[in-house]
Design brief:
The protein is globular and about 40 Å long. It has helices spanning about 1-5, 20-25, 50-60, 75-85, 100-105, 120-130, 145-165, and strands at about 10-15, 30-35, 65-70, 85-90, 115-120, 135-140. It has a 6-stranded parallel beta sheet with strand order 1-6-5-2-3-4, with helices on both faces. The protein has 7 helices and 6 strands.
Amino acid sequence: MTDLFRTFYPDAFVASSYVIDYEKLYRKGYRGIIFDIDNTLVPHGAPADERAVRLFERLRTAGFDTCLISNNQEPRVKPFADQVGSRYIFNAHKPSVKNYKRAMELMGTDQKTTLFIGDQLFTDVWGAKRSGIKSILVRPIYPKEEIQIVLKRYLERIVLYFYTHGR
């Protein structure tokens, strides 16, 4: 059973996108970071806040390029990307690998120099794994979510149990 779950294991699991040592990741050779938006950087549907804007300024200063990929439509994604100053891909159909690869093309990075950060195992992390990209799973920022995400969260808890107890 745990072999099946390993398909969805992130490379790291942390409390928040805002506690990651990005400068250390840069020293390790990463140059591009792909982010999910909702519940990874801000609560679902929220605009970019000052903390998100500062994070992307910090990433640019460190030397990173960034790309937001979201399954949401452009009216949600573009204003957020404009606020934080990032490239973006909307209607990404995660976990399809197509737009993970497109994000790397936009940033001029490859599988070894790209990292993905998101809050969902079955879309974000699985898509990154299928694309050959290292992934960091973060805890969702805000617990109130749409019903289809709530249902996936129950399944994620099972996978995360094996991730944290059976590695």
